Amino acid sequence: MRLFTNCKVNLFLKVLGRRPDGYHELETILHTVGLSDEMEIVPTETGDIEVQMSLAEGVTGDLPSREENTVYRAARALLETGASNEGILIEVLKHIPVSAGLGGGSGNAAGALVALRDHWGLRLSRAEMLEMAATIGSDVPFCIQGGTMLASGRGEILTSLTDALAGWFVLGISDRPLPTADVYAEWDERSPRAETNPAAMSLALGAGDIEEVASLLHNDLEAPAFRMRPELPAGKEALLEAGAFGALLSGSGPTVFGLCADEEQARAVAARVEPAFDRVEIAPSRDRCVEIQAEASL
Ligand code: C5P
């Protein structure tokens, strides 16, 4: 079974406060973007879960250990329901940088959950799938669905949004990852609370008004991430100067994205901002995270 899992950007992210469990209460709008990892799932004779993860050419980052790997944890969560005792090898080729604020690992976990559910013919309700996804990571429930959603709680409470935005994104990538937990800890230092809410962004998305969406881009984690990585604001400035309608840190960073109307604009912006980043990719809006391609190997 071959599949692709897309990445995400946060078009809006407001931190409401730190919770007693250490997580942070959020209001965020997530939007799926078509820079994708490739996954292949193959049954084996071993009775075990094996994950082989590798970086595509030019992609940097530290690969997680087996126990930390969201793909391994997703497969194990399904097996713990007594789903199967079949061995499984999951290969992942990473095009999405690791710990970059693009939700690559969350997408891989969602891909493993959806593909293995289908492969083992499991009758899990949508609610059960989302609950299992939330045990793996805060963004994994969103990745099960993909498209554009408003997320609250720690990111796992989802509301679909009408989204007519068909944008192109210029992703300004840094080779040095920024651990999510560290950026939230830096937010805790000052706990800034923006006087903003996602309503206007929801309306702009519904209308597909790209310039309005660009003017409403907001991320409360941007200031803490920029304090930790002082070179990032220059990347954001470069995207705006190069002609992107708007630019923002994605999630907890360090990726900074520029929003463009079409591929031509995205290519032109990408060419101009190359010196400001370690790597630049362009990718369009997508309406789902997990794209199952074929079942050839089963
Ligand atoms: O849920 P996930 O494993 O992706 O989160 C990674 C880390 O990011 C958490 O351990 C926590 O420190 C931080 N986090 C948070 N509030 C959220 C999501 C993540 O504090 N809503």
Distinct ligand kinds: cytidine-5'-monophosphate
SSE run: EEEHEHHHEEEHHHEHHEEHEE
User: Percentage of helical residues?
Assistant: 25-40%
Q: Would you tell me the structural class of the helices and strands? A: alpha+beta
Could you tell me the number of beta strands? 12
Low-confidence stretches: none
Question: Quick check: average pLDDT?
Answer: 95
Molecular structure report:
It is a single chain. It is globular, with a radius of gyration of 18 Å. It has 10 helices and 12 strands. With 298 residues, the chain is of the alpha+beta class. The protein has helices spanning 70-79, 104-119, 126-136, 140-145, 180-190, 199-207, 210-216, 222-228, 232-241, 263-273, and strands spanning 2-18, 24-44, 49-55, 87-94, 148-153, 157-160, 168-173, 218-219, 246-249, 256-260, 279-284, 290-294. α6 runs antiparallel to α7. It starts with a strand and ends with a strand. Strands 1, 2, 3, 4, 5, 6, 8 and 12 form an 8-stranded mixed sheet that branches.
Ordered list of secondary-structure elements with their pairings:
Blueprint: E1 2-18, E2 24-44, E3 49-55, H1 70-79, E4 87-94, H2 104-119, H3 126-136, H4 140-145, E5 148-153, E6 157-160, E7 168-173, H5 180-190, H6 199-207, H7 210-216, E8 218-219, H8 222-228, H9 232-241, E9 246-249, E10 256-260, H10 263-273, E11 279-284, E12 290-294
Parallel strand pairs: 1-8, 3-4
Antiparallel strand pairs: 1-2, 1-12, 2-4, 2-5, 5-6, 7-10, 7-11, 9-10
Helix pairs in contact: 1-2, 5-8, 6-7
The structure holds cytidine-5'-monophosphate (C5P).
Residues 22-24, 26, 137-139, 154-155, 180-181, 184 line the site of cytidine-5'-monophosphate (C5P).
